[in-house]
């Protein structure tokens, strides 16, 4: 008969499981002998584990980690919150995240409080996505590609601009009644009659966006 090491429980099948798995609410032995009916307040967890109010045992390191590991939130009760630094934002659940993640269009707090009540102001040459509070290049508005996560940059793109209707996928020049291909943007030639396709500010932002996209596609070494 197989013997299990110390601090392990032997299932009827001969399988050895950590003793902390006994009476933890999960059926780790096939016939549930690790979860008998008498599992109650007498359950004892391993010293390195935390006992939940529902008698489940979880690793002590999961205590006060802002996740409901017990299933009854008892591992998140009476927690002493650490002080967030000046460069951090405190989520409503107490977790500290980088302040740069506040209102960045992505929920970095588990409760999404970092994206609540955000007021975003985009630059003159940028477009504000409706529901994600994220700015993209104005040139990407109505260019035929969905750049906003909510697709708002491609909504209503058959509008008449300056008396001219540009087709989907075309760039509308800022002050002239011109429509050009987006591949002509920042190519060194002024294809718009007002030269807005070669605007220095637009092009500097354009190449910065392209760099960020290309750079983010490579894994860190």
Automatic annotation (TrEMBL):
Membrane disposition: Single-pass membrane protein
Annotated localization: Endomembrane system; Membrane
GO biological process: vesicle-mediated transport
UniProtKB keywords: Disulfide bond, Glycoprotein, Lipoprotein, Membrane, Receptor, Repeat, Signal, Transmembrane, Transmembrane helix
Pfam family, one: Ldl_recept_a
GO CC annotation, single: endomembrane system
Disulphide-bonded residues: 4-16, 11-29, 45-57, 52-70, 64-79, 84-96, 91-109, 103-118, 142-157
InterPro entries: LDL_receptor-like_sf, LDLR, LDLR_class-A_CS, LDrepeatLR_classA_rpt
Keyword Repeat appears in the UniProt entry: yes
Entry keyword annotation includes Nucleotidyltransferase: no
PANTHER family associated with the record: LOW-DENSITY LIPOPROTEIN RECEPTOR-RELATED
Protein name as annotated: Prolow-density lipoprotein receptor-related protein 1
Organism: Araneus ventricosus
């Amino acid at each position: 008969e197989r013997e299990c090491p110390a601090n392990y429980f032997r299932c009827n099948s001969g399988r050895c499981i950590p003793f902390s798995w006994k009476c933890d609410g999960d059926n780790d032995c096939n016939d549930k002998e690790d979860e008998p009916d008498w599992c109650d307040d007498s359950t004892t967890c391993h010293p390195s584990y935390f006992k939940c109010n529902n008698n489940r045992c979880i690793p002590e390191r999961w205590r006060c980690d802002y996740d409901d590991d017990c299933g009854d939130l008892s591992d998140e009760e009476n927690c002493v919150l650490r002080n967030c630094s000046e460069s951090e934002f405190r989520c409503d659940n107490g977790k500290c995240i980088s302040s740069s993640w506040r209102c960045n269009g992505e929920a970095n707090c588990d409760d999404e409080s970092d994206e609540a009540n955000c007021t975003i102001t985009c630059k003159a040459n940028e477009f504000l996505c409706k529901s994600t509070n994220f700015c993209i290049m104005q040139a990407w508005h109505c260019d035929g590609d969905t750049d906003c996560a909510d697709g708002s940059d491609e909504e209503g793109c058959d509008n008449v601009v300056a008396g001219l209707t540009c087709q989907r996928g075309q760039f509308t020049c800022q002050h002239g009644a011109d429509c050009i291909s987006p591949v002509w943007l920042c190519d060194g030639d002024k294809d718009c009659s007002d030269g807005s396709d070669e605007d220095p500010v637009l092009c500097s932002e354009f190449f910065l966006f392209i760099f960020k996209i290309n750079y983010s596609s490579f894994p860190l070494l």
